[in-house]
Amino acid sequence: MHSLKLSQRGFTLIEILIALTLSIIIILAMLRAFVTTGKVTAEASLGAQSDSSMMLGLIATDRILQGIGFGDTPNYGTSFKAYKFIGADSSDTYNVTTNSSDNAEYLVWAVGANKCQALRNASNGLLLYGKGAGYSCTDLSKPDLDDDSVSVERLIQINDAVQNIQFEASKAAGNKIGAMTIKVIQNNCWPFGIVNDADLDPGKYQIIITTNTYAASTETATQKIENTTCLFNFK
Known about the structure:
Elements: H1 13-66, E1 80-84, E2 104-112, E3 115-122, E4 125-129, E5 135-136, E6 152-157, E7 180-189, E8 203-213, E9 223-231
């Protein structure tokens, strides 16, 4: 009987090292994909929450602004005033012209004798001061931010983390998510749904609020939404 010789050959050290290296690369790639997917999902969730807050807040703000000057003989500067967004010194009133390019930090209006309400364009959203009966004011003064008795309602909430999503390259251009501008322009206008009605005297001023949204924005440019409110009580 002839003996059967079997040849046995294992893996070399180099083959094992190559297999381990490939396995590590594949695992790292899978982990990177998992982290990226999680980051995108988290950003999308935060962005969607912020966009929802913006839309609902703009609707509420529009309804509030439409009532400015009702039941009064409103005039700009005596029953409604805006303050420029110029850093620490915001004492100058807004220059209301059709071609103005200034942004307002505060909109202040009278709701009674020495009582006011105000909207503020804050760094992380839109705030309403003096909801209801208003806060004590003189000559349409801005709310005292250190006075705890002044009620504050946040109409739009922008999470700090959301403002930095995907916009590292364009922060200097003011393209952060939630960045907002408020303008007051002098221009004839009519209530929503009514256009150039000859039998209806138009309003005199418009408030235009523009904000950057998450949806459809890119790394270098944000998608903006704009809400225009006619101050119909100002003739």
